[in-house]
Protein 1
Amino acid sequence: MAEKVETVETGVSLTPKDIEMATLRWWLMSHLSYNYQRMQAGGFASMIGPIMKKLYPDKPEEVIAGLKRHMMFFNTEPRWGAVIHGITIALEEQKAKGEDISEETIIDLKSSLMGPLAGIGDTISGALYKPVLLGICLGWASTGSFLGPLVFAIGMLGYDYTITRLSIRKGYQLGTTAVTTILEGGLFKKLTTFFSIMGLFVLGIMVCKFITVDVALQTVVAGKKIVFKELFDQIVPKALPLALTIVSWRAIMKGYRVINVLLCLFAFALIGGALGIIK
Amino acid sequence: MIQAVLVGLLAWAQSSSNPLGWWLIREPLMAGFWVGLIYGKPVEGLIIGAAINVAFLGWNSTGGANPSDLYSAGLLGTAVAIQSNMSTEQAVVVAVSIGVIGNYAWILFMSINSMLPSMQDKYAEKGDVRGIMLIQAIPSQVVVILVRGIPAFLAAFYGPTVIDGLLAAVPAWGIAGFNTVGKVLPAVGVAMLLKYMARKDLLVFFGLGFAVSAYMGMNNLLFGAFIGAAMGYIYISLQPKEAVVNAREEDEI
């Protein structure tokens, strides 16, 4: 493939600015028309549209074909998944230069990568990075400190744009090899292990900090007042919040719908609170 | 009235489906702050928003299993709570309840938008990039105003009266139960997060975090994050290469 690029000298080359603008378009527009029919297809087409126009200045039929193939169903995690966008841009550029790349290759590449990259991206962004940052910021915010929203906004916006930009650039530079590097480089596994440990440790603290329910029950036995909370606190303090968390978690893992778990907790707390057993 | 209009506009911006809306307004922590600002009580709004946010720790944007809608819960929960002078526990209960109804706004948004790709196809046939981008950006904003902005305005304007009436009708023991619900619901948030994060081989770190906090009363989360990061670093440094690779395959519990 590499030699062919040298020999075919026709066509327009994309500049770094084109890639930056495509990044910005995707970043701002990816989900604007998010829908059940084709998810992010419109966002993808909006991202690559101007690039198609630049690649085929005097071939409107190629622009049309390009827009049509990029209006197909597409859905991935918008930050890490943007590697696909970089690769697609690179492929479209080579195709425009006369390289023998079929329409099917591009379509297959997009649809085969969007799932795995969504898995990676959702794990890192949604299940690891955001919760840890959010947990810390909630700690500040719950005491009324404006550091909470400030750090969260900067931390998330910075992360969102940086990862999107890096993904598109890496994808464009490395082409199809990029994904293999990401999927098999071991970096992702290390990253998820690292974030999982950090996240789980913080989550353990959150159980004590944020679930503030406690045992209210007390009774008088033989003239002696027994406060159950004090008994529990001597063995495992915060045992009730921990138990509620574990039971809910196991129930969700067993396949109970979250809404039902929520309703059960609701009923448990409402009755327990009304009877004065918990507070 | 003006404040309710501002809440409606905030709801529009919050749900406009771009990173600025997601990270500056969507999370209840952020929404609470802005709503607080609108009603002249930014600190109260922030504290209420943070409390609501805990119940939504495990909310995931990929859709599907969310029992309650993050967008409306934070924004409208705070708007109603701050006007009715509720406790943070009561605010959490009201917010989660609002969010259960709010889930339909998301479904409506996605459904109505499903007409848009067909319109974009027509522009693709003509090679009109500008047309595709206009359809991408504009019509869905009208949808957001309809399914998010206007309902938010109505809830912020009429909500407090309705909720005040309801609360006034509830007896004292009911209020006690209500407050307890607010203290218990964060468990769902933590449990959902645990579902995403938990790996059998790493679950000990959850126990460790809990034990340190429960027995020592240490609940500084930033400090916890530093300790957690250090432990994570040590763990992956000591891990033999094969073991790290295999860990992913067998981690589902």
Protein 2
Amino acid sequence: MMRWRLLVLDIREGARRHPSRIVLPFAGIALGMFILAVVLGIVAGLRQQAHSAIAELGVNSFAILPLADDPSLPALPLTRRHAELLRGNLPAEAVTAYQAGESLLDGKTVRILHADEYLWRVRPWPILAGRPLDADDMRNRTAVAVISDSLSRETGWTIGQAISIGPETVRVAGIVSIESGAMESVSASPRLSPGDRVVIVPWTLPAYWAQSPVPREDSLDIIFVRSRAAESPGPVVSAARRLLGDPHYACAPLSWITPATLVAQLQKLRQRILMAGGLLAALCLLMSGITLGSLMCANVQARIPEIGLRRALGASPADIGLIFVLEAVFLTACATLLGAGTAAMLLPFTARALPVPVATGFSLLLLPMATSILLGIAFSLAPARIAARIAPAEALRNE
Amino acid sequence: MTTPILSMEGVARWFPAPNGSVSVLQDIHLSVEPGEFVCLTGPSGSGKTTLLHLAALLDRPSAGCIRLAGQDVLSLDEEQRTGLRKHRVGMVFQRFCLLSHRSVLENVLFRFRYLDTPDREARSMALQALEHVGLTSHSDQPARLLSGGEMQRVAIARAIALPPDLLLVDEPTGNLDPATGAGIMSHFMELNRRGITIIMATHNTAVAGHAGRRLECRAGRLRETAPGGTV
């Protein structure tokens, strides 16, 4: 026990002599490790999203979206007509589509999905209470809605609750758990995340939620197709491409999101974030490491008499070198605990505000901690060697 | 006939310099018997400290032979020399060499930092050493808050916490007023009466008067100025 206490006292010796000197490298390393932990959280989040997208939709599903906002493209390239075309020509497959928008309900921004009755065949979101939308709702234009459980929790709305959307009133018919919007999240819009406030209404109801400009009634933001085949949806994708490529249907360029493209897109995004964030973190850590190295050199100079004393009392050169390596590792580890620990604690609260999915948890500390130990060792080796090589007699003359 | 605790035969020490080398000690022959109190006098730069560093195995001679407790130290590797030094030699430095942020007791315990002494035993020996120098009541006080005389007493306590065969003392009163210096000297005489061999370097002839044997170091050579040993 006393040995450990002595070791801790040895390590603290340098910091206690000149506490102001350690501020710069400490802050730099803490910042670098904060960035590194956030980058790791985003990368892990994207990986989880890819997995959950495939888990949610199955490997046999794909999505069709209009290409992202490009003014050169014709407006509203995807319509109900296209969804019907696919449904009519691919009778063995499940096809669903919806238009998405936003509205203010009770002062809260709510996602509104204009969906059809096939939604639950392709997106098997669990119904927690009530029922999903059905064919009668579409046919009769029933003023009903299925709301997300998070909206229900926030507002206290339950089955039968009348809610006003614009000038109209709909009644809550069901409550659904939006488990993941992984497939939607690869496009700029529509974007869905677990925990979003969502109201799903029959697509046959007018878009009374819409602000100016009012979208075409039959326009779509996304079409989903689930192939009956258990494996890759490749043949169905080819058939759908052929159908929508028919000039008669005047379909503008589309984005085809299959499980493979989804994983590839997320991987590409992950690599970009890893490159950019990693580079920033690496620069930060390199600069801090260099500052740490100079700090340790100054520390060795300031502690020459102490080195002489230690040698006189029986320390070997290796013992002397070890003090400075341990001191640097202790410093980097503390800075990492502060930086990466802050990131790990803040990410759960800020994840929803970030434009990318983020994984959270204290496992984010593992790589930064390992990096900090390596950083501490790497930038203290040279000062430690200098300290170990100081002749004890010379050191004592410095007294 | 007892084995000398320290013997030097034909020891020389020179240091490389831009124009050849600078000779600090030359042809030193010295034999110190156990229980002796030897004082090295001489002006600053005469080689006293270099001689103490050689005796403490902190430095290697450029020529000659050094034996500590009969063992030829030049035949030992660095690890063996370190082992011999930490178990048998104690040192007291002119400027005390205390760790200013640590307490008095922690400074004395520092003597055991590189030894395998059990914690409880080390603590007991450290407290005993502090009692010997009359600083038990200051044991928890930070070293930086002590006076010069108290700091020197802590340094002595550190050196004797593990009773050494040979205690090397470098200018122990150099930074102290005469009254405090006299108090410190009485501690060394008491240690010597308890059987600890002491070699003390000083340029203060009054301080040297306490020793049983006086050697003068001048221009790198040793000369006996009071009877009692072989030079």
Protein 3
Amino acid sequence: MPEPLFEVRDLVTRFRSEGGEIRPSRGVSFHIAAGEVLGLVGESGSGKSVTARASIRLQQPESATIGGELFFRGQDLRKLDAEALRGLRAKQIAMVVQDPAAALNPVMTIGDQLTRIHRLHGGSEAEAREAALLLLRRMRIAEPESRLAAYPHQLSGGMRQRVLIALALICRPSLLIADEPTTALDVTVEAEILALLDELRRELGMAMLMISHNLSVIGRICDRVAVMYAGRIMEEAPTQALLATPRHPYTMALLASVPRGTKRDGPLPAIPGEPPDLARLPPGCPFQARCPGAAPQCTAEQPLRDIAPGRKAACWRAEAA
Amino acid sequence: MARFLLGRAATLALVLFGASVLIFLVVRALPGDPAIAMMTSNATPAEIQAMREALGLHLPLWQQYLTWVGGAVTGDLGRSFMYSNGVAAMIAERFPVTLHVSLVALAIAMAIAIPAGVLSARYKGGALDHMFRVVAMIGISMPVFWQGLLSILLFAVILGWLPPGGYQPLSAGLGLSTAHIILPAVALGTAYAATITRMLRSSMLDVLGREHIAVARAHGVPERTIIWTDAFRNALIPTLTAAGFSFGYLLAGAVLTEVIFNLPGMGRLLYESILSRDYPLVQGLVLLNVTLFVLINFGMDALYAVLDPRIRR
């Protein structure tokens, strides 16, 4: 296997909350090759967003601590000082998030926000403006010149998300963290923006960590998928294999809960039970309380292990199968 | 923008009208008769009545009000009962003192509050944050007059560096004037600095937790830019409200501070005028305070519009 662009080993995040210590990531490992798209799927509260952000050393909340190793092009991000980390992020990393209204600075014009990111790499104001205009055109934003002078509140939600993506792509990063980038959008706008994002990603040869709770979004653009539950990766596999033959009971339950077809023959399927309280996790598999196949073995730790070439799962049943 | 400001100006006029009615009625609802207050204790009822007529107090209330407001619009606030000077002239004499102290105090307050608030938020939970918190608590809890007395004791009595009180206008020379103004301005300024610091700290923390800050960090924007450009400008909007109110309170005059430092300002004048039931003087001073407060609010609104494009529309 060639050296991955980005490799996360045994990532642990923790912070204190009223209910006790919360660990949104409990030993998460994954890797992304250059140009590859890895999906990170899970229900809300599974820790996927905190994990993805912590993987580039963004702490949320700020009091959170991060453990593990984060190799970017062979360099451990955790060993970089603040300035080196900032420089690396500026050149190589970008992030798009779910809520574009909150992700753009309300008191800065679109143009200022775009050009200042471009200028982190040097170059003149005129060059930065040119790059911003070019990118806004690529994002199919009408009248890009006048948009540069606009403030975020003057744009529609879909338009803001395009600007946010432009903001991420303007420095031609090699890794994009996409944290539910289309969740807040209408279905039609979502499809359009996903297609656009994928097109530009291919053009730039950019790798992507795509966080979503939506399996159809994941299925459309990811090469591989990691399924997360209660701070752990439960299963990891190439997208098609995972969707066709899920091996972990949680993945199966997740796939079964996706509404299909148009027949209205009963209530929408849902995973029974509630996601576990992250401050009070049972020993062993975190999914055991909701798992239809739970057995005494499940109270033992279930590490993520190879079950087939390119496939991993954290369940003794998956291994036996 | 023009429409926004015009709307605010209309509100301002309405507030001033309401306030003038209220001031006029409240002053007259105060117990005590100014005519009696001005006479010796053995004055006859006839003499008192003559005095009432001389002061115009025998007229119906609406007529008294119209006379007062009619004058006020043209800048004539009537004559003081006690000093028989024009109220406008008396205020014109005192106001520069209060304005001078207030401006210096506000500058001191902001000069302390901005770095302290920003640094407290930047290093939340750190030693600096705790230090500023303790200092701010002391600043909020310690009465201004007490701080004033201590500073007079130290700088005027023990060290002899500064005069213990009195006022010198700027025309008397910057050095001399500042030597007189600095102790009261610091006493007032630090008190307001404490409140503004806490306000700025909490709005900075609020903004720093927002998604656009995380995005800026992910894109490698330098932390200094994030603090001062991304966070500070957004956090300034609620902080300006606190600063604006502080300035309003400062301009109303600080009675105790003016007494301690022997400053001939508005606070003392208001205090004396209330004690002597000097209706025109009380009315004039309070009306000026209200006007200033409303004008400051108006200025704040205009500033918000400059700072926050969402308000401009």
